[in-house]
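Design a sequence for this backbone.
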């Protein structure tokens, strides 16, 4: 199959591209390299450095004629979305709309959208949160991702474009950008390795549901062959992990003893979240496999190696 991956130079997208190529698919990547890195793009993929908002995107769809689009390109930081809501709006709404128009005009059969279970539901009324939980985003990022979901519904109803929505929890693993605002495991690992003192925003009791990137890729592969349309699936363990626990797990894995600084909680951030992923388990048999200790060990090993090679 020919699959176009937007954001394929980024953290999750680049792992997906590797797996798709390994499985024998033809892969086209679109990324503006604002956060992604060209070194992470598989050399067997066709790469276009382009912004998803660019009107020339249509030319790529016309030439490449992908059957499936996996839409991972995004402004993906809650904090940045609160600091610059217009940028988030532009990339996550206008950019997504541009992708959908290309899908409609150039015969794409199906789109898979990476949404966020960590931000669309808002502060949970119950934990773990399943897909029926009310949608009340607390951040501009969460709201705009939800807009993306609704665009998919509309394009399916009106133009027959098939879709699947994956609502990820907090994804972590190698290649996550440690210089960004999101991805606390990457950020803390890198800072502790460099001898810096990380800041925990809040009192350390905020909770998140951490999912290793390989588990996310498995779910992406499963839904590509899934013939039911319009499904929304949470991906997560359903387990709440506090910021303190994450910090101490990374510290332990690195064998360092640095104490964190505590700063004030940032706008848009939830106090608690964990996702119930029973629906995708029932429909597709997916469940996460990589436990936190193993995932953190793999992740810190990666950042150690990168630092030893002086790579960002
Ligand atoms: P990432 O920042 O590593 O990847 C996003 C990629 O998109 C980057 O390579 C970036 O260069 C590219 N990009 C950004 N704006 C672009 C634009 N205007 N045009 C073209 N390319 C652009 O982030 P990630 O963590 O790999 O996230 C991938 C997707 O998964 C995003 O849609 C994000 O919202 C979603 N998601 C991620 C998480 C997580 O925990 N990492 C959780 C929920 C949802």
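Sequence:
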């Amino acid at each position: 199959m020919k699959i176009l991956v937007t954001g394929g130079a980024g953290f999750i997208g680049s792992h997906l591209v590797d797996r798709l190529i390994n499985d024998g698919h033809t892969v086209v990547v679109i990324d503006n390299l604002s956060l992604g890195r060209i070194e992470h793009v598989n050399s067997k993929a066709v790469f276009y450095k382009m912004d998803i908002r660019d009107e020339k995107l249509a030319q790529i769809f016309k030439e490449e004629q992908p059957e499936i689009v996996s839409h991972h390109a995004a402004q993906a930081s809650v904090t940045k979305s609160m600091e610059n809501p217009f940028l988030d709006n532009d990339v996550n709404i206008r950019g997504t709309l541009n992708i959908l128009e290309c899908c409609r005009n150039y015969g794409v059969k199906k789109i898979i959208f990476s949404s966020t279970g960590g931000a669309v539901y808002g502060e949970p009324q119950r934990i773990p949160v399943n897909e029926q939980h009310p949608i009340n985003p607390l951040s501009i990022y969460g709201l705009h991702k939800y807009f993306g979901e609704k665009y998919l519904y509309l394009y399916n109803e009106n133009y027959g474009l098939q879709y699947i929505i994956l609502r990820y929890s907090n994804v972590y693993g190698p290649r996550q950008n440690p210089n960004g605002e999101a991805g606390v495991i990457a950020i803390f690992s890198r800072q502790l390795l460099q001898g810096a003192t990380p800041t925990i925003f809040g009192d350390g009791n905020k909770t998140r549901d951490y999912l290793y990137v390989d588990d996310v890729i498995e779910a992406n592969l499963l839904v590509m062959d899934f013939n039911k349309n319009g499904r929304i699936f949470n991906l997560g363990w359903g387990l709440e992990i506090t910021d303190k626990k994450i910090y101490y797990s990374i510290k332990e894995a690195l064998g360092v003893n640095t104490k964190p600084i505590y700063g004030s909680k940032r706008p848009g951030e939830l106090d608690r979240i964990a996702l119930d992923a029973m629906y995708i388990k029932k429909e597709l048999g997916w469940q996460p496999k990589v436990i936190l200790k193993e995932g953190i060990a793999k992740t810190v090993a990666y950042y150690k190696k990168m630092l030893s090679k002086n790579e960002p």
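Residues 84 and 275 are 27 Å apart (CA to CA).
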